[in-house]
Amino acid sequence: MIFKEILQKYWGYSRFRELQEEIIRSVYQGKDTLGLLPTGGGKSITFQVPALAKPGICLVISPLIALMKDQVENLRKRGIKASLIVSGMSFREIMITLDNATYDKEMKFLYVSPERLETSVFRERLQLLRVNLIAVDEAHCISQWGYDFRPSYLNIAEIREFLPGVPILALTATATPEVVDDIQEKLKFKEKNVFQKSFERKNLTYIVKQTDTKINDFLTYCKELKGTGVVYVRNRRKTVELATLLKKNGILADFYHAGLSLDERNKKQEAWKADKTRIIVSTNAFGMGIDKPDVRFVIHMDLPDSLEAYFQEAGRAGRDEKEAVALLLVDASDRLQLIQQLDIFFPPIDVVKKVYHALGNYAQIPIGSGKGKDFLFNLVEFSKTYHFNVLVAYYALKLLDLDEYISVSEDIDNPSRISFSVDREELYNYQLQHPDDDPFIKFLLRTYSGLFTSYVRIDEKDISSKINIPVEKVVEWLKKLQKYELIDYIEQKHGTVITFLTNRFDYKDIELSKDVYDFRKKRMQYRIEQVINYAYSNHKCRSQLLLMYFGDKNPYRCGKCDVCKKRNEINVSTYEFDMISQEIKKLISHQSLTMDEILASLQYPKEKVANVIQWLIEHGKIIQTKSLKYHWVTKANI
Predict the structure, then answer these.
(1) What does the pLDDT look like over 431-467, one tens digit per residue?
(2) 57, 129 in Cβ contact below 8 A?
(3) What residue segments make up the domains of the chain, in order of their start?
(4) How far does the chain reach from its first CA to its final CA, in angstroms?
Protein backbone atom coordinates (compact mmCIF):
# COMPACT_ATOMS: atom_id res chain seq x y z
CA MET A 1 0.00 0.00 0.00
CA ILE A 2 1.50 3.34 -1.07
CA PHE A 3 0.45 5.17 2.12
CA LYS A 4 2.30 2.76 4.41
CA GLU A 5 5.35 2.87 2.14
CA ILE A 6 5.42 6.68 2.46
CA LEU A 7 4.95 6.45 6.24
CA GLN A 8 7.82 3.98 6.52
CA LYS A 9 10.11 5.84 4.13
CA TYR A 10 9.85 9.32 5.66
CA TRP A 11 8.76 8.74 9.26
CA GLY A 12 10.01 5.23 9.98
CA TYR A 13 6.64 3.96 11.26
CA SER A 14 5.23 0.63 10.17
CA ARG A 15 1.59 1.38 11.00
CA PHE A 16 -0.77 4.31 11.34
CA ARG A 17 -2.45 5.48 14.53
CA GLU A 18 -6.20 5.17 15.00
CA LEU A 19 -8.19 6.93 12.22
CA GLN A 20 -5.11 8.29 10.41
CA GLU A 21 -5.36 5.87 7.49
CA GLU A 22 -9.15 6.32 7.16
CA ILE A 23 -8.71 10.10 6.92
CA ILE A 24 -5.88 9.70 4.39
CA ARG A 25 -7.99 7.42 2.17
CA SER A 26 -10.92 9.83 2.29
CA VAL A 27 -8.77 12.79 1.23
CA TYR A 28 -6.93 10.76 -1.42
CA GLN A 29 -10.30 9.90 -2.96
CA GLY A 30 -11.00 13.62 -3.32
CA LYS A 31 -13.53 13.94 -0.48
CA ASP A 32 -13.78 17.01 1.74
CA THR A 33 -12.91 15.68 5.18
CA LEU A 34 -12.96 16.87 8.79
CA GLY A 35 -10.60 15.06 11.14
CA LEU A 36 -10.98 15.43 14.91
CA LEU A 37 -7.90 14.01 16.54
CA PRO A 38 -6.78 14.83 20.09
CA THR A 39 -3.60 16.73 20.88
CA GLY A 40 -0.70 14.47 19.96
CA GLY A 41 -2.94 12.33 17.75
CA GLY A 42 -0.78 12.81 14.65
CA LYS A 43 -2.86 15.31 12.66
CA SER A 44 -0.02 16.43 10.36
CA ILE A 45 0.50 12.89 9.03
CA THR A 46 -3.07 12.90 7.68
CA PHE A 47 -2.32 15.60 5.11
CA GLN A 48 1.40 15.03 4.61
CA VAL A 49 1.05 11.40 3.49
CA PRO A 50 -1.73 11.89 0.86
CA ALA A 51 0.00 15.02 -0.45
CA LEU A 52 3.20 13.01 -1.01
CA ALA A 53 1.19 10.25 -2.73
CA LYS A 54 -0.07 12.65 -5.42
CA PRO A 55 1.68 14.94 -7.89
CA GLY A 56 1.48 18.61 -7.00
CA ILE A 57 1.74 20.71 -3.86
CA CYS A 58 -0.26 20.78 -0.63
CA LEU A 59 -1.42 24.19 0.59
CA VAL A 60 -1.35 24.19 4.42
CA ILE A 61 -3.22 26.97 6.21
CA SER A 62 -2.41 27.57 9.88
CA PRO A 63 -2.54 30.52 12.30
CA LEU A 64 0.41 29.24 14.35
CA ILE A 65 3.64 30.60 12.94
CA ALA A 66 5.88 28.70 15.37
CA LEU A 67 4.12 25.44 14.50
CA MET A 68 4.41 26.10 10.75
CA LYS A 69 8.14 26.77 11.07
CA ASP A 70 8.56 23.62 13.13
CA GLN A 71 6.72 21.45 10.58
CA VAL A 72 8.62 22.94 7.63
CA GLU A 73 11.94 22.24 9.37
CA ASN A 74 10.89 18.67 10.15
CA LEU A 75 9.84 18.04 6.53
CA ARG A 76 13.12 19.43 5.23
CA LYS A 77 15.08 17.19 7.61
CA ARG A 78 13.27 14.23 6.02
CA GLY A 79 14.31 15.34 2.56
CA ILE A 80 10.87 16.76 1.65
CA LYS A 81 10.78 20.20 0.06
CA ALA A 82 8.57 22.65 1.95
CA SER A 83 8.34 26.42 2.32
CA LEU A 84 6.23 28.98 4.14
CA ILE A 85 4.91 32.53 3.86
CA VAL A 86 4.40 34.35 7.16
CA SER A 87 4.30 37.86 8.61
CA GLY A 88 7.59 39.71 8.59
CA MET A 89 8.70 38.56 5.12
CA SER A 90 9.60 41.14 2.49
CA PHE A 91 7.66 41.39 -0.79
CA ARG A 92 10.65 40.05 -2.74
CA GLU A 93 11.01 37.15 -0.30
CA ILE A 94 7.34 36.27 -0.76
CA MET A 95 7.66 36.39 -4.56
CA ILE A 96 10.72 34.11 -4.55
CA THR A 97 8.87 31.65 -2.29
CA LEU A 98 5.85 31.67 -4.63
CA ASP A 99 8.15 31.20 -7.66
CA ASN A 100 9.75 28.17 -6.03
CA ALA A 101 6.34 26.75 -5.11
CA THR A 102 5.11 27.30 -8.68
CA TYR A 103 8.03 26.10 -10.77
CA ASP A 104 9.93 23.63 -8.58
CA LYS A 105 8.16 20.33 -9.19
CA GLU A 106 9.81 18.80 -6.13
CA MET A 107 8.20 21.36 -3.81
CA LYS A 108 5.47 19.47 -1.90
CA PHE A 109 4.20 21.81 0.83
CA LEU A 110 3.50 25.53 1.06
CA TYR A 111 2.48 26.75 4.53
CA VAL A 112 0.64 30.08 4.73
CA SER A 113 -1.21 32.08 7.36
CA PRO A 114 -4.90 32.68 6.55
CA GLU A 115 -4.36 36.44 6.13
CA ARG A 116 -2.23 35.75 3.04
CA LEU A 117 -5.17 34.21 1.19
CA GLU A 118 -6.85 37.58 0.56
CA THR A 119 -3.86 39.28 -1.06
CA SER A 120 -4.11 39.86 -4.80
CA VAL A 121 -0.54 38.60 -5.32
CA PHE A 122 -1.34 35.26 -3.72
CA ARG A 123 -4.65 34.82 -5.54
CA GLU A 124 -3.04 35.58 -8.90
CA ARG A 125 -0.51 32.82 -8.31
CA LEU A 126 -2.94 30.33 -6.81
CA GLN A 127 -4.09 28.77 -10.08
CA LEU A 128 -0.48 28.15 -11.16
CA LEU A 129 0.44 26.27 -8.00
CA ARG A 130 -0.73 22.74 -8.99
CA VAL A 131 -2.46 22.35 -5.59
CA ASN A 132 -3.42 18.73 -4.81
CA LEU A 133 -4.87 19.32 -1.33
CA ILE A 134 -5.89 22.19 0.96
CA ALA A 135 -5.11 21.36 4.60
CA VAL A 136 -6.69 23.62 7.22
CA ASP A 137 -5.09 23.24 10.64
CA GLU A 138 -6.81 24.55 13.81
CA ALA A 139 -10.06 24.44 11.81
CA HIS A 140 -12.16 25.47 14.82
CA CYS A 141 -10.87 29.01 14.20
CA ILE A 142 -13.41 29.34 11.36
CA SER A 143 -16.40 29.13 13.71
CA GLN A 144 -17.79 32.01 15.74
CA TRP A 145 -19.13 29.31 18.07
CA GLY A 146 -15.56 28.20 18.73
CA TYR A 147 -13.21 29.42 21.44
CA ASP A 148 -10.59 30.90 19.10
CA PHE A 149 -12.49 32.46 16.19
CA ARG A 150 -10.33 34.20 13.57
CA PRO A 151 -12.20 36.08 10.82
CA SER A 152 -9.34 35.56 8.32
CA TYR A 153 -10.33 31.87 8.29
CA LEU A 154 -13.56 32.82 6.52
CA ASN A 155 -11.45 33.63 3.43
CA ILE A 156 -10.47 29.98 3.01
CA ALA A 157 -13.74 29.01 1.33
CA GLU A 158 -13.24 31.78 -1.26
CA ILE A 159 -10.05 30.23 -2.63
CA ARG A 160 -11.99 27.06 -3.51
CA GLU A 161 -13.37 28.99 -6.51
CA PHE A 162 -9.81 29.21 -7.85
CA LEU A 163 -9.11 25.53 -7.17
CA PRO A 164 -12.14 23.55 -8.38
CA GLY A 165 -12.00 19.86 -7.55
CA VAL A 166 -9.27 20.23 -4.89
CA PRO A 167 -10.40 18.58 -1.63
CA ILE A 168 -10.12 20.20 1.78
CA LEU A 169 -8.89 18.44 4.90
CA ALA A 170 -9.90 20.36 8.02
CA LEU A 171 -8.19 19.35 11.28
CA THR A 172 -8.71 20.23 14.91
CA ALA A 173 -8.14 18.71 18.33
CA THR A 174 -11.13 20.35 20.03
CA ALA A 175 -14.62 21.04 18.69
CA THR A 176 -18.09 20.92 20.18
CA PRO A 177 -20.90 19.45 18.00
CA GLU A 178 -22.05 22.91 16.86
CA VAL A 179 -18.48 23.81 15.85
CA VAL A 180 -18.14 20.52 13.91
CA ASP A 181 -21.20 21.44 11.84
CA ASP A 182 -20.08 25.05 11.44
CA ILE A 183 -16.62 24.07 10.13
CA GLN A 184 -18.12 21.97 7.34
CA GLU A 185 -20.65 24.64 6.41
CA LYS A 186 -18.13 27.51 6.38
CA LEU A 187 -15.63 25.51 4.31
CA LYS A 188 -18.39 24.56 1.84
CA PHE A 189 -18.04 20.81 2.15
CA LYS A 190 -19.82 19.02 -0.68
CA GLU A 191 -21.23 16.62 1.92
CA LYS A 192 -20.72 16.02 5.61
CA ASN A 193 -17.73 13.80 6.25
CA VAL A 194 -16.32 13.59 9.77
CA PHE A 195 -13.74 11.23 11.27
CA GLN A 196 -13.69 11.67 15.01
CA LYS A 197 -11.51 9.91 17.48
CA SER A 198 -13.04 9.74 20.94
CA PHE A 199 -11.92 12.55 23.19
CA GLU A 200 -11.58 9.99 25.99
CA ARG A 201 -8.04 9.66 27.34
CA LYS A 202 -8.11 6.42 29.35
CA ASN A 203 -4.51 6.80 30.50
CA LEU A 204 -5.01 10.35 31.77
CA THR A 205 -6.29 10.92 35.32
CA TYR A 206 -8.02 14.28 35.81
CA ILE A 207 -7.76 15.73 39.31
CA VAL A 208 -9.15 18.99 40.69
CA LYS A 209 -7.78 19.99 44.07
CA GLN A 210 -9.72 22.71 45.89
CA THR A 211 -7.33 24.19 48.42
CA ASP A 212 -6.55 27.16 50.65
CA THR A 213 -2.81 26.43 50.42
CA LYS A 214 -2.22 26.33 46.69
CA ILE A 215 1.54 26.94 46.69
CA ASN A 216 2.19 24.32 49.38
CA ASP A 217 0.06 21.78 47.52
CA PHE A 218 1.83 22.68 44.28
CA LEU A 219 5.22 21.95 45.84
CA THR A 220 3.98 18.69 47.35
CA TYR A 221 2.61 17.44 44.03
CA CYS A 222 5.79 18.41 42.14
CA LYS A 223 7.84 16.40 44.64
CA GLU A 224 5.50 13.38 44.65
CA LEU A 225 4.70 13.12 40.95
CA LYS A 226 7.37 11.30 38.99
CA GLY A 227 8.83 12.14 35.58
CA THR A 228 8.65 15.21 33.38
CA GLY A 229 5.95 17.84 33.81
CA VAL A 230 4.52 21.10 32.54
CA VAL A 231 3.04 23.77 34.80
CA TYR A 232 0.73 26.35 33.20
CA VAL A 233 0.20 29.82 34.67
CA ARG A 234 -1.60 32.91 33.40
CA ASN A 235 1.25 35.46 33.26
CA ARG A 236 4.97 35.71 32.62
CA ARG A 237 5.87 36.91 36.12
CA LYS A 238 4.45 33.74 37.66
CA THR A 239 6.55 31.53 35.37
CA VAL A 240 9.73 33.00 36.86
CA GLU A 241 8.44 32.96 40.46
CA LEU A 242 7.32 29.32 40.43
CA ALA A 243 10.38 28.05 38.55
CA THR A 244 12.58 29.81 41.12
CA LEU A 245 10.56 28.26 43.97
CA LEU A 246 10.99 24.77 42.49
CA LYS A 247 14.75 25.26 42.08
CA LYS A 248 15.05 26.36 45.72
CA ASN A 249 13.38 23.08 46.66
CA GLY A 250 15.88 21.00 44.71
CA ILE A 251 13.75 20.40 41.60
CA LEU A 252 15.24 20.86 38.13
CA ALA A 253 12.92 23.53 36.72
CA ASP A 254 12.89 26.39 34.25
CA PHE A 255 10.46 29.03 32.98
CA TYR A 256 9.19 29.75 29.47
CA HIS A 257 7.11 32.52 27.91
CA ALA A 258 6.70 34.35 24.63
CA GLY A 259 8.78 37.33 25.78
CA LEU A 260 11.99 35.30 25.53
CA SER A 261 14.14 35.38 22.40
CA LEU A 262 13.91 32.52 19.93
CA ASP A 263 17.36 31.31 20.98
CA GLU A 264 16.40 31.29 24.68
CA ARG A 265 13.13 29.46 23.99
CA ASN A 266 14.86 26.84 21.86
CA LYS A 267 17.48 26.18 24.53
CA LYS A 268 14.85 25.80 27.24
CA GLN A 269 12.75 23.48 25.06
CA GLU A 270 15.72 21.29 24.18
CA ALA A 271 16.84 21.03 27.81
CA TRP A 272 13.32 19.94 28.80
CA LYS A 273 13.04 17.47 25.91
CA ALA A 274 16.40 15.97 26.90
CA ASP A 275 15.24 15.65 30.55
CA LYS A 276 17.90 18.09 31.74
CA THR A 277 14.96 20.15 33.01
CA ARG A 278 12.26 18.10 34.75
CA ILE A 279 9.52 20.74 35.05
CA ILE A 280 8.88 23.68 32.74
CA VAL A 281 6.68 26.50 34.11
CA SER A 282 5.03 28.35 31.26
CA THR A 283 2.29 30.51 29.90
CA ASN A 284 0.12 28.99 27.15
CA ALA A 285 2.92 29.88 24.70
CA PHE A 286 4.50 26.51 25.49
CA GLY A 287 3.33 23.28 23.93
CA MET A 288 2.34 23.92 20.30
CA GLY A 289 4.34 21.58 18.10
CA ILE A 290 6.32 20.20 21.02
CA ASP A 291 6.14 16.45 20.65
CA LYS A 292 7.39 14.92 23.90
CA PRO A 293 5.46 11.69 24.46
CA ASP A 294 6.59 10.91 28.03
CA VAL A 295 5.17 13.92 29.90
CA ARG A 296 3.82 12.40 33.11
CA PHE A 297 1.88 15.37 34.47
CA VAL A 298 0.43 18.76 33.56
CA ILE A 299 -0.49 21.16 36.37
CA HIS A 300 -2.69 24.24 35.93
CA MET A 301 -2.21 26.88 38.63
CA ASP A 302 -4.93 29.15 37.21
CA LEU A 303 -8.35 28.47 35.74
CA PRO A 304 -8.17 28.32 31.92
CA ASP A 305 -10.40 30.55 29.77
CA SER A 306 -12.18 27.58 28.19
CA LEU A 307 -12.48 23.82 28.45
CA GLU A 308 -11.14 23.59 24.88
CA ALA A 309 -7.90 25.27 25.98
CA TYR A 310 -7.72 23.13 29.13
CA PHE A 311 -8.29 19.91 27.22
CA GLN A 312 -5.53 20.74 24.73
CA GLU A 313 -3.01 21.73 27.40
CA ALA A 314 -3.84 18.86 29.78
CA GLY A 315 -3.68 16.51 26.78
CA ARG A 316 0.05 17.12 26.41
CA ALA A 317 0.52 14.61 29.22
CA GLY A 318 0.72 10.91 28.46
CA ARG A 319 0.96 10.94 24.69
CA ASP A 320 2.89 7.67 24.97
CA GLU A 321 -0.42 6.19 26.25
CA LYS A 322 1.11 5.42 29.66
CA GLU A 323 -0.47 6.66 32.89
CA ALA A 324 -0.33 10.44 33.37
CA VAL A 325 -2.01 13.11 35.52
CA ALA A 326 -3.78 16.39 34.66
CA LEU A 327 -4.06 18.43 37.87
CA LEU A 328 -5.99 21.67 38.33
CA LEU A 329 -5.36 23.57 41.58
CA VAL A 330 -8.09 26.04 42.56
CA ASP A 331 -8.82 28.20 45.57
CA ALA A 332 -11.85 30.27 46.52
CA SER A 333 -10.62 33.40 44.70
CA ASP A 334 -10.08 31.74 41.32
CA ARG A 335 -13.79 31.67 40.45
CA LEU A 336 -14.20 35.43 41.00
CA GLN A 337 -10.97 36.24 39.13
CA LEU A 338 -12.14 34.30 36.06
CA ILE A 339 -15.55 36.00 36.12
CA GLN A 340 -13.82 39.39 36.33
CA GLN A 341 -11.67 38.42 33.35
CA LEU A 342 -14.77 38.71 31.18
CA ASP A 343 -14.75 42.51 31.46
CA ILE A 344 -11.02 42.57 30.77
CA PHE A 345 -11.50 40.45 27.64
CA PHE A 346 -14.14 42.91 26.40
CA PRO A 347 -13.17 46.56 26.98
CA PRO A 348 -15.98 49.06 26.25
CA ILE A 349 -16.44 49.83 22.54
CA ASP A 350 -15.44 53.49 22.97
CA VAL A 351 -12.14 52.35 24.58
CA VAL A 352 -11.49 49.99 21.65
CA LYS A 353 -11.96 52.93 19.25
CA LYS A 354 -9.52 55.05 21.28
CA VAL A 355 -6.93 52.25 21.12
CA TYR A 356 -7.37 52.09 17.32
CA HIS A 357 -6.91 55.87 17.02
CA ALA A 358 -3.79 55.76 19.22
CA LEU A 359 -2.41 52.85 17.20
CA GLY A 360 -2.61 54.91 14.01
CA ASN A 361 -0.65 57.70 15.71
CA TYR A 362 1.86 55.20 17.13
CA ALA A 363 2.51 53.79 13.64
CA GLN A 364 2.51 57.33 12.14
CA ILE A 365 -0.13 56.37 9.58
CA PRO A 366 -2.17 59.29 8.17
CA ILE A 367 -5.98 58.92 8.07
CA GLY A 368 -7.07 57.47 4.72
CA SER A 369 -3.84 55.52 4.09
CA GLY A 370 -1.80 52.62 5.49
CA LYS A 371 -3.53 49.54 4.05
CA GLY A 372 -1.05 46.65 4.08
CA LYS A 373 1.50 48.50 6.22
CA ASP A 374 3.04 46.38 8.97
CA PHE A 375 5.33 47.34 11.81
CA LEU A 376 6.93 45.95 14.96
CA PHE A 377 4.79 46.75 17.97
CA ASN A 378 5.72 47.04 21.64
CA LEU A 379 2.61 46.73 23.80
CA VAL A 380 4.20 48.05 27.02
CA GLU A 381 5.70 51.08 25.26
CA PHE A 382 2.39 51.77 23.45
CA SER A 383 0.37 51.52 26.68
CA LYS A 384 2.69 53.86 28.57
CA THR A 385 2.77 56.40 25.74
CA TYR A 386 -1.01 56.61 25.40
CA HIS A 387 -1.92 55.90 29.07
CA PHE A 388 -3.77 52.61 28.58
CA ASN A 389 -3.87 49.69 30.99
CA VAL A 390 -1.72 47.02 29.31
CA LEU A 391 -4.41 44.32 29.47
CA VAL A 392 -7.11 46.70 28.22
CA ALA A 393 -4.93 47.66 25.26
CA TYR A 394 -4.08 44.01 24.52
CA TYR A 395 -7.71 42.85 24.40
CA ALA A 396 -8.82 45.95 22.50
CA LEU A 397 -6.29 45.00 19.82
CA LYS A 398 -7.72 41.47 19.83
CA LEU A 399 -11.21 42.86 19.14
CA LEU A 400 -9.87 45.10 16.35
CA ASP A 401 -8.24 41.99 14.89
CA LEU A 402 -11.56 40.12 15.06
CA ASP A 403 -13.28 42.99 13.22
CA GLU A 404 -10.49 42.93 10.57
CA TYR A 405 -9.24 46.47 11.04
CA ILE A 406 -5.80 45.10 11.85
CA SER A 407 -3.97 41.78 11.98
CA VAL A 408 -1.96 41.03 15.11
CA SER A 409 0.78 38.43 14.67
CA GLU A 410 2.15 37.85 18.13
CA ASP A 411 5.67 36.77 19.00
CA ILE A 412 7.13 36.83 15.52
CA ASP A 413 10.72 35.65 15.65
CA ASN A 414 12.15 35.70 12.14
CA PRO A 415 15.92 35.17 11.90
CA SER A 416 18.06 37.33 9.63
CA ARG A 417 18.04 36.30 5.95
CA ILE A 418 19.99 37.22 2.84
CA SER A 419 19.60 36.56 -0.89
CA PHE A 420 21.80 37.69 -3.77
CA SER A 421 20.02 40.21 -6.02
CA VAL A 422 22.49 39.80 -8.91
CA ASP A 423 23.65 36.82 -10.96
CA ARG A 424 27.05 35.18 -10.56
CA GLU A 425 28.64 37.17 -13.41
CA GLU A 426 27.65 40.54 -11.96
CA LEU A 427 28.85 39.44 -8.55
CA TYR A 428 32.20 38.33 -9.98
CA ASN A 429 32.70 41.71 -11.65
CA TYR A 430 31.96 43.46 -8.35
CA GLN A 431 34.52 41.27 -6.56
CA LEU A 432 37.18 42.21 -9.12
CA GLN A 433 36.45 45.92 -8.66
CA HIS A 434 36.20 45.76 -4.83
CA PRO A 435 38.97 43.46 -3.57
CA ASP A 436 38.35 44.52 0.07
CA ASP A 437 34.88 42.92 -0.05
CA ASP A 438 36.01 39.80 -1.91
CA PRO A 439 36.96 37.66 1.16
CA PHE A 440 33.62 38.38 2.88
CA ILE A 441 31.60 37.53 -0.27
CA LYS A 442 33.59 34.31 -0.75
CA PHE A 443 32.90 33.37 2.88
CA LEU A 444 29.14 33.82 2.32
CA LEU A 445 29.25 31.70 -0.85
CA ARG A 446 31.25 28.93 0.88
CA THR A 447 29.08 28.89 4.00
CA TYR A 448 25.53 29.19 2.62
CA SER A 449 23.99 27.43 -0.35
CA GLY A 450 20.99 28.59 -2.39
CA LEU A 451 21.79 32.30 -2.09
CA PHE A 452 20.97 32.99 -5.75
CA THR A 453 17.58 31.25 -5.75
CA SER A 454 16.08 31.89 -2.31
CA TYR A 455 16.49 33.62 1.02
CA VAL A 456 18.86 31.84 3.39
CA ARG A 457 18.94 32.17 7.17
CA ILE A 458 22.11 33.63 8.62
CA ASP A 459 23.36 34.27 12.13
CA GLU A 460 25.45 37.43 12.44
CA LYS A 461 27.01 36.20 15.70
CA ASP A 462 28.03 32.92 14.08
CA ILE A 463 29.60 34.76 11.12
CA SER A 464 31.38 37.06 13.57
CA SER A 465 33.00 34.18 15.45
CA LYS A 466 34.02 32.33 12.28
CA ILE A 467 35.79 35.26 10.60
CA ASN A 468 36.90 36.81 13.90
CA ILE A 469 35.44 40.30 13.53
CA PRO A 470 32.89 42.16 15.71
CA VAL A 471 29.18 41.54 15.05
CA GLU A 472 28.76 45.26 14.31
CA LYS A 473 31.30 44.94 11.49
CA VAL A 474 29.39 41.95 10.03
CA VAL A 475 26.14 43.96 10.00
CA GLU A 476 27.94 46.94 8.49
CA TRP A 477 29.36 44.75 5.71
CA LEU A 478 25.98 43.19 4.93
CA LYS A 479 24.36 46.63 4.77
CA LYS A 480 27.10 47.83 2.44
CA LEU A 481 26.44 44.94 0.03
CA GLN A 482 22.74 45.76 0.26
CA LYS A 483 23.42 49.42 -0.48
CA TYR A 484 25.18 48.36 -3.69
CA GLU A 485 22.13 46.16 -4.49
CA LEU A 486 24.17 42.95 -4.45
CA ILE A 487 22.09 41.33 -1.71
CA ASP A 488 18.76 41.77 -0.01
CA TYR A 489 19.49 41.70 3.73
CA ILE A 490 16.54 41.32 6.12
CA GLU A 491 17.51 41.80 9.74
CA GLN A 492 16.02 39.67 12.49
CA LYS A 493 12.57 40.69 13.71
CA HIS A 494 11.43 39.76 17.19
CA GLY A 495 8.15 40.75 18.79
CA THR A 496 4.61 41.48 17.74
CA VAL A 497 3.87 42.58 14.18
CA ILE A 498 0.69 44.57 13.48
CA THR A 499 -0.64 45.00 9.95
CA PHE A 500 -3.31 47.52 8.94
CA LEU A 501 -5.83 45.58 6.85
CA THR A 502 -7.62 48.74 5.68
CA ASN A 503 -6.67 52.34 5.23
CA ARG A 504 -6.77 54.10 8.59
CA PHE A 505 -10.22 55.36 9.57
CA ASP A 506 -10.95 58.61 11.37
CA TYR A 507 -12.17 58.06 14.95
CA LYS A 508 -15.77 58.99 14.10
CA ASP A 509 -15.87 56.51 11.19
CA ILE A 510 -14.83 53.39 13.16
CA GLU A 511 -17.75 50.97 13.24
CA LEU A 512 -17.89 48.20 15.82
CA SER A 513 -21.21 46.31 15.88
CA LYS A 514 -22.71 46.17 19.38
CA ASP A 515 -24.71 43.05 18.40
CA VAL A 516 -21.54 41.20 17.36
CA TYR A 517 -19.71 42.49 20.46
CA ASP A 518 -22.52 41.26 22.73
CA PHE A 519 -22.68 37.87 20.96
CA ARG A 520 -18.94 37.29 21.44
CA LYS A 521 -19.11 38.35 25.07
CA LYS A 522 -22.05 36.01 25.70
CA ARG A 523 -20.16 33.08 24.12
CA MET A 524 -17.14 33.83 26.28
CA GLN A 525 -19.37 33.98 29.36
CA TYR A 526 -20.77 30.54 28.50
CA ARG A 527 -17.27 29.07 28.17
CA ILE A 528 -16.23 30.59 31.50
CA GLU A 529 -19.32 29.12 33.18
CA GLN A 530 -18.40 25.67 31.84
CA VAL A 531 -14.86 26.00 33.24
CA ILE A 532 -16.24 27.00 36.65
CA ASN A 533 -18.67 24.07 36.56
CA TYR A 534 -15.79 21.68 35.83
CA ALA A 535 -13.53 23.15 38.53
CA TYR A 536 -16.04 23.45 41.37
CA SER A 537 -18.37 20.52 40.67
CA ASN A 538 -17.73 17.62 43.01
CA HIS A 539 -20.41 15.12 42.04
CA LYS A 540 -19.66 14.33 38.38
CA CYS A 541 -16.70 12.38 36.98
CA ARG A 542 -14.14 14.84 35.54
CA SER A 543 -13.71 12.82 32.37
CA GLN A 544 -17.48 12.64 31.92
CA LEU A 545 -17.81 16.43 32.25
CA LEU A 546 -15.19 17.00 29.54
CA LEU A 547 -16.56 14.34 27.20
CA MET A 548 -20.13 15.61 27.53
CA TYR A 549 -18.95 19.14 26.74
CA PHE A 550 -17.48 17.83 23.49
CA GLY A 551 -20.69 16.07 22.55
CA ASP A 552 -20.31 12.53 23.88
CA LYS A 553 -23.85 11.52 24.86
CA ASN A 554 -23.18 8.63 27.26
CA PRO A 555 -19.57 8.64 28.44
CA TYR A 556 -18.42 6.16 31.06
CA ARG A 557 -16.99 7.23 34.39
CA CYS A 558 -13.22 7.04 34.42
CA GLY A 559 -13.14 5.48 37.90
CA LYS A 560 -9.91 7.26 38.90
CA CYS A 561 -10.43 11.04 38.97
CA ASP A 562 -10.81 12.76 42.37
CA VAL A 563 -14.63 12.51 42.18
CA CYS A 564 -14.64 8.83 41.19
CA LYS A 565 -12.12 7.95 43.89
CA LYS A 566 -14.36 9.45 46.56
CA ARG A 567 -17.31 7.60 45.14
CA ASN A 568 -15.34 4.35 45.16
CA GLU A 569 -14.79 4.77 48.90
CA ILE A 570 -18.48 4.09 49.64
CA ASN A 571 -18.09 0.46 48.44
CA VAL A 572 -20.79 0.69 45.78
CA SER A 573 -20.13 -0.30 42.17
CA THR A 574 -20.63 2.25 39.40
CA TYR A 575 -23.69 0.35 38.15
CA GLU A 576 -25.22 0.13 41.64
CA PHE A 577 -24.53 3.79 42.37
CA ASP A 578 -26.24 4.89 39.15
CA MET A 579 -29.30 2.69 39.79
CA ILE A 580 -29.65 3.68 43.46
CA SER A 581 -29.14 7.41 42.87
CA GLN A 582 -31.69 7.41 40.03
CA GLU A 583 -34.24 5.66 42.26
CA ILE A 584 -33.59 8.17 45.04
CA LYS A 585 -33.98 11.06 42.62
CA LYS A 586 -37.37 9.75 41.48
CA LEU A 587 -38.51 9.37 45.08
CA ILE A 588 -37.57 12.76 46.47
CA SER A 589 -37.59 15.16 43.52
CA HIS A 590 -41.22 16.14 44.19
CA GLN A 591 -41.59 15.20 47.85
CA SER A 592 -39.50 15.06 51.03
CA LEU A 593 -38.96 11.74 52.84
CA THR A 594 -37.16 10.59 55.96
CA MET A 595 -34.17 8.28 55.77
CA ASP A 596 -36.32 5.34 56.96
CA GLU A 597 -38.96 6.06 54.30
CA ILE A 598 -36.30 6.10 51.55
CA LEU A 599 -34.68 2.88 52.80
CA ALA A 600 -38.05 1.14 52.98
CA SER A 601 -38.93 2.17 49.41
CA LEU A 602 -35.81 0.74 47.73
CA GLN A 603 -34.98 -2.92 47.03
CA TYR A 604 -31.25 -2.56 47.67
CA PRO A 605 -29.11 -3.35 50.72
CA LYS A 606 -29.79 -0.63 53.30
CA GLU A 607 -26.08 0.00 53.95
CA LYS A 608 -25.43 0.72 50.27
CA VAL A 609 -28.44 3.02 49.99
CA ALA A 610 -27.33 4.91 53.13
CA ASN A 611 -23.80 5.29 51.70
CA VAL A 612 -25.16 6.67 48.42
CA ILE A 613 -27.43 9.12 50.29
CA GLN A 614 -24.51 10.29 52.40
CA TRP A 615 -22.39 10.82 49.28
CA LEU A 616 -25.20 12.76 47.58
CA ILE A 617 -25.60 14.99 50.66
CA GLU A 618 -21.85 15.70 50.85
CA HIS A 619 -21.80 16.60 47.18
CA GLY A 620 -24.80 18.90 47.29
CA LYS A 621 -27.30 16.76 45.40
CA ILE A 622 -29.59 16.20 48.41
CA ILE A 623 -30.56 18.68 51.14
CA GLN A 624 -32.09 18.00 54.54
CA THR A 625 -35.21 20.03 55.40
CA LYS A 626 -36.03 21.54 58.79
CA SER A 627 -38.31 18.57 59.47
CA LEU A 628 -35.29 16.26 59.00
CA LYS A 629 -36.56 14.96 55.70
CA TYR A 630 -34.50 14.69 52.51
CA HIS A 631 -35.16 16.42 49.17
CA TRP A 632 -33.38 16.30 45.80
CA VAL A 633 -31.75 19.60 44.84
CA THR A 634 -33.21 21.21 41.73
CA LYS A 635 -32.59 24.65 40.27
CA ALA A 636 -35.73 25.83 42.07
CA ASN A 637 -34.17 24.87 45.44
CA ILE A 638 -30.95 26.78 44.85
Answers:
(1) 999 999 999 999 999 999 889 888 898 999 999 999 9
(2) yes
(3) 2-196, 204-330, 339-414+495-524, 417-491, 570-632
(4) 61
